[in-house]
Amino acid sequence: MSQKVIINTFKAPAAIGPYNQAIKADKTLYVSGQIPLVAESMALVNTGIQDETHQVFKNIEAILHEAGYGFEDVVKASIFLSDMDNFAAVNEIYAQYFTVNQPARECVAVKTLPKNVNIEISVTAWKA
């Protein structure tokens, strides 16, 4: 029988809408899109795409760990950018978190993201 478990942690920013940080369904974890908010203060990191991207990954890592997963378990990543000119910088930082067995992914530019941030990333993880 399949189970659906809601995952939330105070080590990542609270949801800014009617959703949870993640949902675990059987062995698959679906992590909601993360933007560069600092969990403790809910303040936005807006000091450049590099800092913003690292904050997003910090948030993702906190949620993954809360559910018992790690970056090595991520099978799919979705990256949303406000400007495709940031692609190279984001890619460089992305490679620091996914060092082996990189997940499938897409990266798209969108008109606007929540709170007018420059980046949002969601991931799907799976563990045997």
UniProtKB/TrEMBL annotation:
Belongs to the RutC family. This is 2-iminobutanoate/2-iminopropanoate deaminase. It holds the Pfam family Ribonuc_L-PSP. Coiled coil: none annotated. GO terms for molecular function: deaminase activity. GO terms for cellular component: cytosol. PANTHER family: 2-IMINOBUTANOATE/2-IMINOPROPANOATE DEAMINASE RIDA, 2-IMINOBUTANOATE_2-IMINOPROPANOATE DEAMINASE.
